[in-house]
Amino acid sequence: MRKFWTLLTREVRSYFYSPIAYIVMIFFLIISGIDFYFQVSFMNQRQVQYTIQEAFFNSVFFWFAFVLIFPLITMRLFAEEFKLGTIEPLTTAPVRDWQVVLSKFFGALVFYLILWIPTLVYFWIFAKVTNQPAAHSPGAYFGSYLMLLLLGMFYLSIGCLTSVLTRNQIIAAVISFCAITLLFFLGLVQFILLDVTSETRDLLGYFSAIEHMGTFSRGIVDTRPIVLYVSMTIVMLMLTYQAFQSRKWRL
Amino acid sequence: MKIGRIRIGLNVVVQIVLILFLAAMVNSLAFKHYKRWDFSRDQKYALSDKTKRFLDSLKGKMRITVFFSPSTPISADVQNLLTEYQYAGKGKIDLEQIDPERNLSRAKELFDKYKVVTDESLLVLDYDGRNKTVKASEMADVDQSGMAMGEGPRVAAFKGEQAITSAMIDLGRGKRRPWDMLQVTRSQRFQPPRALSRY
Q1: Which of A58, A111, A113, A161 is exposed most, by the fewest CB atoms within 10 A?
Q2: What residues of A are in contact with residue B74 (Cβ under 8 Å)?
Q3: Is the ipTM value over 0.85, yes or no?
């Protein structure tokens, strides 16, 4: 466990030594700030039935930034180490492959969670300035941030897998962006198709990130998305582990 | 050397297939058996016990066709509420969403079937060959006092559950035969308290 913690600390630190972390943070804060500003302006103009917290987590700006950050966070995880050759000392060190894979995944997850911390300040400022609650209940915050964690875990694990498959960071980013966007649009199919049965709509809804976020941001917690994202994260990490190990036996 | 590599490769493929199979099984189970918790303070979309009991007692499938244009102020509320009905109905509620402005042919077909003659957004509940409509105006009290000031209509109170459940109960009641009442009465006969019945 101590080796894992050492690797994890190394991973988290390495984010802040590279310029990409600051670029991602600035990009993300600008987009989420614009999102928040537009939602407040919209709510100022007309009467709406939802809160600023629901609007923030379900807007186009949110999803735009959300889908884009994962390739940026994960592209360097393995690809950079392969290219620079720093993976060799790591694989010959007395650490297991699963420790390397998990430390990279959790390192990315820690950075991803750090990205979201400032958004809590938005809601606090909103509540202070307007004397209105930013959400219907603490449960709505809990639901939104829980869904952010679950989606983040899944999409980061996809990024880990694509990064382990190539030495080129750009290729890793493009593949993970395509995979994440494809999965994201799969959830939109139910809104596009007109004549679908209730069962098909349910099945498509099971994979719909938009629907999951909509439900969780209202403060409703459902076990199905939790099972889906946790299980798919495990699958992706298993595939990453196998792909990482394959370098040894394929030689 | 080559045989060893093939063996490892096969081992990896088997592991991957197994983990994919396991994940598919877990998700298939999770899709059918799930739980939902409402952590919102006002529990806006949480269904009452009465509605849940009624949905449990439903014998057949109830089909709900939603003719709501997205511009209706309560459209999102109705959508969220019906989703809760679907979850509580455990497969007994069949939901079809029709945007009358986009899917004209399907809307016309169903309007003709249910003999609907209104431009208002509404739901049609169909159970056991009988149907009932619930209009948007029955599901919410809309405050239009701000219209003169250029503001849009404001939903003062959303009473979707009340309107939908009572329409469902009306449809369910229509099915009862006179002797069903007798059966209910018989089942409600005086029962000694459990503690006494032991002696």
Answers
A1: A113
A2: 49
A3: no
> Could B38 and A232 be called an inter-chain contact, meaning their C-beta atoms sit closer than 8 Å?
no
Task: Please tell me whether residue B143 adopts helix, strand or coil conformation.
Answer: strand
Helix axes A138-165, A209-217, angle to 10 degrees: 150
User: What's residue B121's pLDDT?
Assistant: 83
Over the range B56-88, which residues count as b (16 or more CB within 10 Å of their CB) and which as e? eebeeebebbbbbeeebbbbbbbbbbbbbbbbb
Supply B36's token pair. 């939902």
- Which residues fall within 8 angstroms of residue B87, CB to CB, at 6 or more apart? B34, B36
pLDDT digits (tens, 9 = 90+) for A129-181: 988 888 888 889 999 999 999 999 999 999 999 999 998 999 999 999 999 99
B18 HSE (CA, 13 A, CB side): 7
Residue with tokens 């994962």: A70
Asked whether A52 and A39 are in contact (CB, 8 A), the reply is: yes
- Please answer whether residues A156 and A105 qualify as being in contact, where contact means their C-beta atoms are separated by less than 8 angstroms: yes
Give chain A positions within 8 Å (CB) of B32: none
The residues spanned by each domain of chain B are 49-175
Q: How many residues does chain B have?
A: 199
Closest CA to B24 of A109, A140, A46, A234: A234
Report CB contact under 8 Å: B34, A221: no
Give the side-chain half-sphere CA count within 13 A for A55: 21
Kindly list the residues from chain B whose CB atom is less than 8 angstroms away from the CB atom of residue A223: 30, 34-36
Two structure tokens written together for A98: 């699963």
At the top level of CATH, the class of B49-175 is: alpha beta
**DSSP letter string, A194-246:** SS--HHHHHHHHHT-HHHHHHHHHTTEEEHHHHHHHHHHHHHHHHHHHHHHHH
User: In this structure, what token pair is assigned to residue B7?
Assistant: 């063996």
Q: Considering the entire predicted model, what is its pTM?
A: 0.80
User: Hey, is B82 helix, strand or coil?
Assistant: helix
